[in-house]
Amino acid sequence: MLNYVTVGTNDLARAGAFYDAVLGALGYARLATSEREIGYGVAGQEHCRFWVNLPFDTRPASVGNGSMPAFEAPTRDAVAAAHKAGIEQGGSDEGAPGPRPSYGPNFFACYLRDPDGNKLSAVCEAP
To answer: How far apart are CA 92 and CA 100, in angstroms?
Structure first.
């Protein structure tokens, strides 16, 4: 259903270091870089599915309350690695890796905020 998701940043270099580590732990790669934005997706594909950008209106980026991209993780270990990488890159914990049975019997997720305050999740639903 979704073509891509974008979050804003006020420091593109810092955001790039954070998302390179977190999304790299999930098996995703940086596919595009410019002075104003960074795009991520599946290595070997052209289409970026997640973008981090300096706002196009040049006003400061702000956090969308209630907004949260959730990234598919191949394994539970990848969920834990993404959470650890995010914390190491200046993110903050919003929910440690673990099962979330209220979302389904195999729903294993973590929640964190990037250095700009954007909330994100990594989820593995494999048994």
So the answer is: 19
Name the residue with tokens 């955001």: 15
Full-prediction pTM beyond 0.90? yes
Beta-carbon contacts of residue 58 (< 8 Å; ≥ 6 apart): none
Task: Decide: residue 8, CB within 10 A, 0-12 exposed, 13-18 middle, 19+ buried.
Answer: buried
DSSP output for the chain: --S-EEEE-S-HHHHHHHHHHHHHHTTEEEEEE-SSEEEEEETT-S--SEEEE--TT-SPP---TT---EEE-SSHHHHHHHHHHHHHTT-EEEEEEEE-GGG-TT-EEEEEE-TT--EEEEEE---
Segment 44-70, tens digit of pLDDT: 998 999 999 999 999 999 998 889 999
